[in-house]
Amino acid sequence: MTQREISYVEIDKIKLDPNNPRINFIHERFENPDDPQIELELNDNTKKYNDLRNSILTFGGIFNPIVLSKKNKGEYICVEGNTRLSLFREFSESTKEIIDSNPNKWKKIPAMVFESDDIKQLEIIRLQAHLVGPREWPKINKARYVYELMNETILTDDEIASSVGGTMTSIRSLARGYENYIKHFVPAAKGDVGDKKITGKFSGIEEYSAPRIQAAAKEHLGDDHWKQFTHWLMETETDRKKFRNMAQVRKLTDILHDDQAREEFLS
Fold it and tell me: What distance in Å separates the CA atoms of residue 225 and residue 184, rounded to the nearest whole number?
């Protein structure tokens, strides 16, 4: 990839990315989310979000440029940096003190611009910016992104692996977990794909999706093992919970293969 210069682009010419993988569950509520709907999703009021907001406001700008894809008629899509762009918009319409804290009155934002509108290149940028980016984001959003990316065959396994700088082991684990999430867990839980009570269990679902655990579960729990596991994971009474945390799910293979441990666990 050739070296790119940093440009200062007018924020009014930039659209937020409706395919931002960090907020991909927005499509469960809106078929074609617009900028105001995307901004509401980005503003999650978490500590990390507020820390970023305060950092940009204190510095009077950003250290790292956002990444844009240039569209027709001089318009852009923000491929990476949607939250930073959203904050620039907020600050540009704030009090005079905040507006004057930025030399461009928050009306322009530093950016690296890609002229190409090639879908494959855009997904490579998203992979590098989001999946291995510096800011952590929910695992289930990562899982949904890589699952859809792999199933849409936009990129080959080798292209995905080279983009994220590693092997496909962890990527396949995420994709396998999400496939089981939508095929088995959500129907058994009788909820919606984006229900936070369900999405919050994803780490356990990814653990349970490991082939060795699936084999042991099917052997000792039968073909309906996903229904049983869903019941365990969704249990709300503290004294009846099978797992104190999602990492304990990985111990299931040893438990199920040990007669005494299995009897105690299932009782």
Answer: 10
